[in-house]
Amino acid sequence: MLKILSGKQVKTLDAAHIEFNGITSLDLMEKAALAFVAWWKTIPLNDALQIHIFCGAGNNGGDGFAIARLLHQSGRVVAVFKCFDELAKMSPEAFSNMEKLPSEIQQKVWSEFDPDSDGILIDAFLGVGFSGRLRSEAVEVIQRINSFAGKKVSVDIPSGLPSDELLDGPCVEADYTATFAFPKLSLLFPEHSQVTGEMVLLDIGIGDEEYSRFSGSCFFLRENDIAGVHRKFHRFSHKGDFGKILIVAGSKGKMGAAILSCTAALRTGSGLVTSLVAEEERQIVQISVPEAMVTFSLPQDLSKFDAIAIGPGIGVGRNAELLATIFKNYTNPIVLDADAITILSQNPELLALVPKGSILTPHLTEFDRILGKTENHQDRLAKASEFCQKWNLNLLIKGANSVICLADGRHIFNSSGTQFMATGGAGDVLTGMLTSFLGQGYSEERAMICGVFQHGLAGEIAGRKKRRGTIASDIIEAIPDTFVELGIS
Ligand SMILES: NC(=O)C1=CN([C@@H]2O[C@H](COP(=O)(O)OP(=O)(O)OC[C@H]3O[C@@H](n4cnc5c(N)ncnc54)[C@H](O)[C@@H]3O)[C@@H](O)[C@H]2O)[C@H](O)CC1
Ligand SMILES: [K+]
Q1: pLDDT tens for residues 182-228?
Q2: Which Pfam families does the entry link to (predicted)?
Q3: pTM of the predicted model, to two decimals?
Q4: Alpha helix stretches (DSSP H) within 228-376
Q5: In order of start, what are the domains of the chain with their CATH numbers?
Q6: Ligand 1 centre from 400 Cα, in Å?
Q7: Closest alpha carbon to 290 in 255, 256, 314, 266
Q8: Does ligand 1 lie within 6 Å of residue 64's CB atom?
Q9: Could you tell me which residues are beta bridge partners of residue 271?
Q10: Could you tell me if the CB of 444 is within 6 A of ligand 1?
Q11: Distance, CA 215 to ligand 2 centroid (Å)?
């Protein structure tokens, strides 16, 4: 899994990569520029007539100069705007790439840029080398960039955004950010979505193993991480191997939650799913999910279940007692979602009873309910680590780039998913998937890795056809396709 380093570690990573591979830092910069231009050709407006490239004096600017040359070579009309004065100390790579600019590319200073120009703007002003407070001229450069009405694409990171911290000052408001090698931590904070726009990760040939010598507890979960995490089943596998699970979900008016989580669990591969619902609501489950069994009271012997989920749509009314009974009679990890999280926040004495290793899946509001009000993602992640370690529990903070917070302090950011998944019931689907994997004998970590990634991927698959019309049932329907796309039998 790809480690997320700090901005300060980038230089050491680059130096080690360069030395190990016998290349120069200019070669690495060229790779970055080539990766950027290859991606550029896939975005809307990539054939824009005019491309305005703002370049700083450091290596981010160096990327910009190299990109300018390559875009020019592929037939685009490019103008470069230098964001430094004649006497500024340039990085050797930036200088070298500036020298390589062909004479057809206009070179101007940033203050000559007319924000009413047509075209598209590339922001290669400041990268991960930016630190402290912006100097006053840098603020003016960023204001000029932001006054441009067309689309803006940031190289590595929007200029002005610190790589590992919260934004605290002016910053380029990008429509796209193309980041190199690994996503900078601050690009994953939801409060920065307005300045990062859509984020893409560009490979510049640094292998995951080259990160191992660096300390760090944050990771980025990608498609190639999934296949190795899955259990292998074989031709003698029987339904018992795929797990018996119990899902406690739904109540009058919210029975959809039970149907969605049970169906998602079955589509994820569960062998046997039992749904605990009120007797008067049984028909709805029996008719909608004939594959599931239904029970009306909590079975005496819970140990026969390989995994249990509780929460979606159960209501907060009298269920604290039910939660306590399950906690006292079951020792394996449980998935706790939605109303179960609210009940826990109202009855904090229950926290000590939650089976160790259980998974809580709060969205941001539920997170604040149980862990206390948080101001931002940095604060949230710190609180999450403390909570998970204190109670020996796992949290899955839902949102774009959902974060798996493990009891050992690691944070794993998910890369799959789309905005079309912001739809009622998507969380119930995730609960069903996580419980299914736990029931199939996956550890909590593996269940969360596969569950959160494939949930996002199912959303992407559904969204390709259904776009903003995607509903939770479409995500469920796409779950089997995720196994196909990932090559998992
Ligand atoms: N592995 C990779 O990710 C690669 C990254 N590349 C690119 O290199 C930059 C980092 O380059 P670096 O030279 O270290 O720094 P920057 O260009 O980001 O910034 C230096 C530049 O910024 C000025 N500056 C710093 N602080 C301030 C401030 N407070 N106010 C105003 N100006 C400030 C400083 O004076 C310098 O001029 C990375 O982001 C990538 O884009 C490589 O090209 C390939 C490998
Ligand atoms: K930038």
Answers
A1: 999 999 999 999 999 999 999 999 998 899 999 999 999 999 999 99
A2: Carb_kinase, YjeF_N
A3: 0.96
A4: 255-268, 282-288, 319-329, 339-346, 364-371
A5: 2-212 (3.40.50.10260), 227-485 (3.40.1190.20)
A6: 27
A7: 266
A8: no
A9: none
A10: no
A11: 25
